[in-house]
Amino acid sequence: MNKKKILFICPYPFDEAPSQRFRFEQYLSILEKEGYEFKLAPFLNLKAWKILYQPGNSIKKLFWLILSFINRFFLLFKLAPYGFIFIHREAAPIGPPLFEWAIHSIWRKRIIYDFDDAIWLEDPTEKGSLKARFKWKSKVKSICKWSYKVSCGNEYLAQFAQNLNKQVVINPTTIDMQYHKEIKVSNSDKIVIGWTGTHSTLPYLKILMPVLDQLRKEYEFELLLISNQKPNFDVNYMRFLKWNKESEIEDLNQMDFGIMPLTNDIWSKGKCGFKLLQYMAIKKPIVASSVGVNKKLLKESEAGFEANTDKEWKEAIIKLLNDAELRQTFGISGQNYVKNFYSVNTNKKTFISLFQ
Q1: From residue 197, how far is each of 65, 108, 205, 241, 275 by CA, in Å?
Q2: Which of 45, 164, 206, 267: disulfide with 144, CB 3.0–4.6 Å?
Q3: Which domain holds residue 300?
């Protein structure tokens, strides 16, 4: 066993999923410079990942799911060289934590357990479904107990983990300022209000659509929506861009300011505010629901407005639509804040400490 060798067990292929890219993948080069060796072991390979969220293909999906479980089983016989096993979210997307139990109880490996959502709770979009039952949410508590250290994206998640494990590290989701850069792009004459996120978070934006519809009757603006899937709603002032890692930063820079509506519930409190960090990193002002870590980011960054009611959302958006100077001031403040507190550079010592 080599304490400088790490196996990263994760759900998705390398460089494909935001949670992995910004939770640990962007630190791999830093680990390498510190003398660590590592290997990634995703549950899904690239072929499986590409069909997972496509409609149909049920037989192919079942085939890849079974094959992925088989590969996980054989992985258990390859753990000997590793000093640390870093598990991001879970070793398998469904079923009890059999793999995690084997890693802890049979192999006696040091597990670093990492998560950036309240994954022990039932996702509101899946509540009561068969899918929710198969996810076996109770396993999160067990994995926390078995872990050498638990890496949590914010204080709310850490409070949960601290009841189960004495070594909990608040390891925020961070921004690589060399990647998230402000660049000039050719925009339309209209102010662009931006939102980005995966398809699973689109319901939060949908809640805000009546407010935007009302504002659009009086003000000229465009809603830019960047996601991995088209929304199930459409309006004539909305422009959809399919998320593309090759053009991600250029697409984000088309915004004049970014929004992040959330519902005020225990699931949302587990969110790590990554949308806001992305907006701020490229010098875009923000309007967001002050739920969970959003409240902290809004207060400390002074980069925009909090909005929790329809009236507050309208007032905040109108101010940013009408005042270019205010947008610039908020943008500078937010960018400095991310650079000083939520960048890879400022957090690298915390990340490396997980393996010490």
Answers
A1: 25, 38, 10, 11, 7
A2: 164
A3: 191-341
